[in-house]
Amino acid sequence: MKQNEKSSKFVWFLLVIVVPAIFAVTVFAIVLSFMGVNVLEEAKNTGKKIPLIKNAFDEDELVTTIVNNENLEKQYQAKIDEQEDYIKLLTADLQKKEKEVITLKGDIALLEKQVEDAETTVKEEENEQLKKLYEAMSAKDAAAVMTEMSNNEVLGILTLLQSETQAAILAKLDRKRAAELTVLMASNSL
Fold first, then answer.
1. What pTM, to 2 d.p., does this model score?
2. Dist CA 96 CA 90 (whole Å)
3. DSSP code of 161?
4. pLDDT in tens for each of the 190 residues of the chain?
């Protein structure tokens, strides 16, 4: 009996209070919706102000934050992958450029060697012409020309000439100058 009495009070409470309250809230929400009020959003905002319900909304926000962070992580990873691909591309380009630089340095060295060889050839040709010129001159005329030159210039010309021509020119020069040039020739040959 007592059990029946408790059950009947519970049923009475459900039928008299809970069901009509749910019906009234539902009708009220429908009326507000027709009036243009976003009932769900308003309920959510109101629920955030109530401490126990606030925790449930915070969990939703936490889940949303986690999802957003995962999305950001994916975006950042995509950017990192893109940057790594770009770095690989730049590295390959740099290696290609370094090979070109090495090739160009080799070309430059070859060209410098060719220029040096050409300069040597020209210098040898000039020396050969100078030698022919002074050997074609008389010793007296060559000595007269050399009196106007410095010792280094005369020494450069004399080293091109044959010994007999050198001796003839030195014989025609002033004795003091001939001695200086002989000493210079001797020190250069050592």
1. 0.44
2. 10
3. S
4. 556 666 788 888 888 888 999 999 889 888 888 888 888 788 777 766 776 655 555 555 666 777 888 888 999 999 999 999 999 999 999 999 999 999 999 999 999 999 999 999 999 999 899 889 988 989 999 999 998 999 889 888 988 888 899 899 989 988 999 898 889 888 876 5
